[in-house]
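Summary for the steering committee. One of the milestones for this cycle was to obtain a three-dimensional model of the protein with zinc ion bound, which we needed before selecting residues for the alanine scan. The sequence and ligand used are listed below.
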Amino acid sequence: MARRLLLDAMLGTLVTYLRMCGHDTLYVQEDGIETDDAIRERAAATDRTLITRDRELAARTADAVLLEAREIEAQLAALQDNGIEIDLPTEPDRCSVCNGRVERIDPDERPDHAPDAVAHVWQCRECEQFFWKGSHWERVRATITDLSG
Ligand SMILES: [Zn+2]
């Protein structure tokens, strides 16, 4: 089930993964939130689980998840251990760039830069970025599959 998450600074790669997994993920560095108090307030006001590498901030925030690891694989595994599902949906659901919802577009609206080999193209309703299940999707899938193996 998709979760509502707020990610602390320095976790940009993890933000991309979590959005691709369909989680509603805000990132403090995109939101312009800087102080610990502002981060705690945003998490509470938007009913989000805070994910941070800052031990002190995690201790002061209800329901926060503290990440000890720097490597993406270990971070994903730690989130899975905390009940946050790490799995790609059948179809892209959320924009990895802006957190908006994506929808599959008609074949005649395909952008020229989409590879011929991909069957379907999705577009973000918010930022209009195009997505398809290409090499990036497969790399993420391989990383995620390794976690459970
Ligand atoms: Zn977007």
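Key point for the committee: The mean pLDDT is 95.
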